[in-house]
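Submission checklist for the structure archive. All mandatory fields must be present; incomplete records are returned to the submitter.

[x] Identifier: Beta-phosphoglucomutase
[x] Organism: Enterococcus pseudoavium
[x] Residue count: 222
[x] Sequence attached
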Amino acid sequence: MSKYLGAIFDLDGVLVDTAKYHFQAWKQLATQLGIPFTEKDNERLKGVSRVKSLEILLSLGNKEYSVEEQEQFLEQKNQVYVDYIKTMDKSEILPGMIALIQELKDRKLKIALGSASKNAEMILKNTELYDYFDVIVDGNHVAKAKPDPEVFLLGAEKMQLPAEACIVFEDAKAGIEAAQQAGMLAVGVGSSVNLPNADMVVKDLTEINVAELLEFNKKDGM
């Protein structure tokens, strides 16, 4: 029997393609503030909190604003983002995701969401993914952003599983680091260049062989 009993999925860029909406919302704010902002810059914002993301964006333009102004910027960015995601539907689910979760459930693994997003429930409902999850932990439940492992440890706790029995699927460097700190198996989704510390990396979820994944040994590789 596999030692893995639970799977924790990040949301943005793993289950659904919300990354483009984050980029468009941050880009709109950056343009307003006169800050150059590229897709490469946007990579640095993946997996980190809103507040930290704004700090990074402002540092790109060497800009300083009061706490009140920064809160206003965050609210503005989030409203633009929410307007985008309100239009999402199941067509934006990334390839291989439903088949993977279904196979994991068939093998009796519990399924959790571990995301920094405060809009996770809205996205899951709009894309008809909500009912696939046994546990949802998002930005409304945790105080510390990735790479702190809090979101994943809380997911394991809510599934009533030890950390070492959990597999994490992440597309961000900070998320991989959080999974490693939690003592979980860290599967990177995306480019191995961006995710050098993952235990294994797949281009997308269609590349996952569940039988091999469940026998994966962190020490020996796959």
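[x] Structure attached
Curator remark: The chain has two domains: 6-17+90-213, 19-85. The chain has nine helices and six strands.
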